[in-house]
Amino acid sequence: MTTTTLAPEKAGPPPPAAPRGTARRSARRGRVVALLFALPALLLLGALVVYPVLFSIGRSFFDASGDRFVGADNYTEMFRDPATLKAVRNTVIWVVVAPALLTGLGLILAVLVEKVRWATAFKLLLFMPMAVSFLAAGIIFRLAYDEDPDKGVLNAAAVSVHDAFADVSPYPTARGREGRDLVRQKDGSYRTTAAVSPGRTVALPLVGVQPGDLPSEARSAAGAAARTAGADELRGVAYLDFTPGGKGTPGKVDGGESGLPGMKVQALRDGTTVASTTAAADGSFRFTGLSPGSYTLALPASNFAAPYDGISWLGPTLVTPAIIGAYLWIWTGFAMVLIGAGLSTLPQDALEAARMDGANEWQIFRRITVPLLAPVLTVVFVTLVINVLKVFDLVYIIAPGPVQEDATVLATQMWLVSFGGGNNQGLGSALGVLLLLLVVPAMVFNVRRFRRSQR
């Protein structure tokens, strides 16, 4: 049997390499196409970012009119101006307080939300303020911080809580009819001008109360004034000495005049309070069991104390914390969602191993969760620092005109100096350059960290 061996076929010659010039032309064509696609974005970037930055830097070396070169005078003036120094101080407060609080709140809420059944709905509610513009949020909180409890919801709540635990003055606008049995003391109280003794009925006339402001239980004081006191009791009536139409007699209880229920009355002897009582619906009051002698009747100052009006949220002291509170309302959801996304990527086996080793939830949170989330927390914190440095809308809208300077930050000060009445765009441009110099390091830090995470 003859075996035939087939010779292997020879491989064909390799395809000819493309000429070097053709490869270069192809690469050059690709770069040109990429540049054409990027050109609109580059033009917008140059027009909206690069040119304004360069123009502001140049403008900061000229005077308010822009005609005379002043060198670094605007930069030195910037740190001599008290308003600018206050803006720098407030900006530092914002940078130190707001990002730290937001990052902490976002971390706590992100961890707690994982244990809530309706986690998605809860995240949606917290994130919803991000959909509200800063203008609308500023108007909302300007109303919420209103000092009038009838308008400002926060002061309405503060007044309700205060009045629930403290005595409320029944007649803050009332005053005694001086020269008619009563004289005002230095502490705001009133006392009878003449000494009284048991067995008498004393009328205490007051004015300054609108008839419409009287309590609903108030009754006519005429009957109370006509009652006769017993030998061992001291009677009286505290009443509104005012008759509609002006027909009454001052200092005398007329038929149409009302008692002042709830009015506190004290009996004093030798300057010491020996008895106290409260007027009834018709303004009548009485002291029983008094020993014979002379007494002075007093209406304590608490009867006439001004009502508690709440907290001056937008006053010079609290305006910056109040605006930071509005900022927290808007951005807490943002911090929570970002940290929650990082929390979902944590290795569950490490957490389970810690639980099996006997670690409680606080130890797991402090020693495992927080260290593993450190990169995410840093990114959130730095992003919020950049955002806080540029805050403008909330400060400008929420702070009333008289305290605008107490709440101003660098961004609002830059606008006020340039366009809000200062008309000094040289100094305003210097403030803009300062703000840019403060933002750039945080941006560079974020970009470098992002590149390291990509590698």
Tell me what the structure shows.
The mean pLDDT is 85. The protein has a five-stranded antiparallel beta sheet, with no helix packed on it. The protein has a four-stranded mixed beta sheet with strand order 1-4-5-8. The chain has helices at 20-59, 73-78, 82-113, 119-127, 134-144, 153-165, 222-226, 319-344, 348-356, 361-372, 374-389, 393-398, 404-407, 410-418, 425-454, and strands at 175-176, 182-184, 190-192, 201-207, 233-240, 264-269, 272-278, 284-288, 296-299. Helix 3 runs parallel beside helix 8 (319-344), helix 4 packs antiparallel against helix 8 and helix 9 packs antiparallel against helix 10 (361-372). It contains 15 helices and nine strands. It is α+β, with helices and mostly antiparallel strands. The protein starts with 19 loop residues before the first helix and ends with a helix. It folds into two domains: 73-156 and 313-454, Orthogonal Bundle (MetI-like fold), CATH 1.10.3720.10; 175-303, no CATH class. It is 50% helix and 10% strand. Strand 2 (182-184) and strand 3 (190-192) form a beta hairpin.
Question: What's this model, at a glance?
Answer:
With 455 residues, this protein is α+β, with helices and mostly antiparallel strands.
